Amino acid sequence: MDRPAALVPLRYVAIGGRGPEDVVADARGRVLTGVEDGRILRVDGLTGEAPARVEVLAETGGRPLGLELLPDDALLVCDADLGLLRVDLREGIVRILADSVAGERLRFCSNVVALADGSVCFTVSSRVHPLEHWIGDIVEHTGTGRLLRLAPGSEAPEVLLEGLQFANGLALAADESFLVVAETGARRLTRYWLTGPKAGHGEPFAENLPGMPDNIWRGSPDGPIWVSLASPRVPPLDLLHRTPPAVRGAAARIAVHAPYRPAGTIGVLAVDDQGDVVHHLTHRRSGFRMVTSVCEAAGHLVLGSLWERGIAVCERPAPK
User: Fold this and answer.
1) SS3 92
2) pTM score, whole prediction
3) What is the pLDDT of residue 50?
4) How far apart are the first and last CA of the chain?
5) pLDDT tens per residue, range 233-254
6) Distance of alpha carbon 58 from alpha carbon 49, whole angstroms
7) Beta strands at 5-6 and 277-283: parallel, antiparallel or unpaired
8) What CATH homologous superfamily does 5-315 map to?
C-alpha cells in the first residue's frame, strides 16, 4: 500500500443530534444521515458560506444506522433496534420490511444496498452484542456477523453468508456481479459473488487494511468504493484475537463497561473493483473522531461518526 496522503478537513457542520453513523449523498449534493434519537436528517448547503440547513425527514423510533437511497424518493434504513426499514421521504412514513430471520429477532442491522432486481441485501454486525455494546463484539471476536438478502415482496430474509467478524458496510460491484462487505473485526473487505461460476461464495477482497473498516459507499458504478476507517490498527487487539474464546469473552465483559475515547488518527480508503487501493487518506490529531462513514457530496468528501454531534466536510482527492 502506498504512503497515505493527507485527509484535509475544511468544515465541521453541527446537525443538532449525536452520532450521524452513516452518511449518503443524493443527486443534488445533499447529505442524509440518521442520529441517536431516531431522526433521519437531510443536510443542505454544506459548502457555502451560509450555515448549512438541517431538515428532519422522518423518525424511526429506533436507532438508524446504514442508509440506502432509492430512486422513488424512499430510503432503506438499517435500524439497530427495529430491523430493516423503508422510509417514504415525502410523507415521513416508516415501514418495517423485516425484523427477524428464521425466527430470530434481527439485532444490530448495520448497512444495506438495493439491487437492480428489486432485492435488498443487508448486514447484521453481531448476534451476541447490541449496538450499545459494539466494542464487546470487536474484543470478543464472535464471528457472528451475517450478510442477508430480502427478495422482492418477501418478509423473510435469507442468509447468504455468516461467520463474519462484525459485518458492516456494504457496496455493489459496478456490474452487480458481487457485493463487498466490510468486516470491521478482521480489518478486511470480503467479496460475495452474486453471479458467475462463483455465485453464492465468499472470498477475501482486500485484507490487512490499515484500520478497521466501517460503512462503505459507492456513488456511481464508475466511481471507487469509499471505505471509512473507524479506528487505526490496534496491535494488542490483534494479539487478543489469537487467545482462547474464554479469554476474549472475559475481556469483552470488561470492555463494555470501561471508558472509551476514539483515537485521534482518522482515515478513509478508496478501492476499485479489483480490491486495489486507489486512495488512502489520513489525518492525525483530529478533532473529529471515529469516522464510521464517508461519501462524496458537492465535490467534497463528507464524514459521519457514531461519536460526534455533526459531520465533517473534507477536501476530495484528485481522481487517479
Assistant:
1) coil
2) 0.95
3) 81
4) 15
5) 999 999 999 999 999 999 999 9
6) 27
7) parallel
8) TolB, C-terminal domain (2.120.10.30)
